[in-house]
Amino acid sequence: MVKVRKRGAVYGVIGLMLCVAAYLNWSYVKTPDDLVVAGQVDDELSAAADAGSTTAEAVSADDYFAQSRLAREQARDEAISILKETVDSASADDASREAASAKISVLAENSVTEARVESLIKAKGYAEAVVLIGDDSLNVIVQPPTGGFAASDAATIKDIIVSETAFSADQIVIVEAG
After folding, report:
1. Is 174 helix (H, G, I), strand (E, B) or coil?
2. DSSP state, residue 165
3. What is the pLDDT of residues 7-39, one digit of tens each?
């Protein structure tokens, strides 16, 4: 009975961490000055932000995408850390260890898939994209093209995702970064 409660607690914490990561990906954006202090922006971007140039909008958009990727990776690393503790725990039963190992594998596969889909979206001419894979959905945040985001853009992105993943078109949510 105690093992079941521990396992439930571990799964609950993992689920909570993933929810926090999703929330941070959608709502948390640091200013360019905060990113410079944290060492997240290279010298060219910080120089452009300091100069107050007309690329300030592009810099903040790039910061949003960089921050989203960073938050996603940090949340994933924390989840993997907790799962590794379960795998390495002497008190965990074999089923818990196997489930934790399987979840680590899924997270690693999702990470590779997210990077691949992001690269393919960028190769189609979109400046930035962040892909977030959930259990039964895939969310994409895309920087819209200069002419605006059209239905054909959504179709192009969905085609990429459907061809590269096991998700169907109705499981894909595309959000325009604004």
Report:
1. strand
2. S
3. 776 776 676 566 555 555 555 544 444 444 444
pLDDT digits (tens, 9 = 90+) for 122-177: 999 999 999 999 989 999 999 988 888 889 999 999 999 999 999 999 999 999 98
Q: 68 near 130, Cβ under 8 Å?
A: yes
Which one-letter amino acid corresponds to residue 77?
Answer: D
| Half-sphere exposure (Cβ direction) of 99: Cα atoms closer than 13 Å | 12
> Helix, strand or coil for residue 141?
strand
Distances (CA, A) of 166 to 90, 135, 146, 159: 35, 11, 30, 12
DSSP string, 30-97: --HHHHHHHT-S-HHHHHHHHHT-TTHHHHHHHHHHHHHHHHHHHHHHHHHHHHHHHHH-SSS-HHHH
Best CA proximity match to 119, nearest among 131, 109, 110 = 131
pLDDT in tens, 65-109: 999 999 999 999 999 999 999 899 888 899 999 999 999 999 999
Query: Rounded CA gap, 105 and 100, in Å?
Result: 9
Confidence of residue 60 (pLDDT cuts 50, 70, 90): low
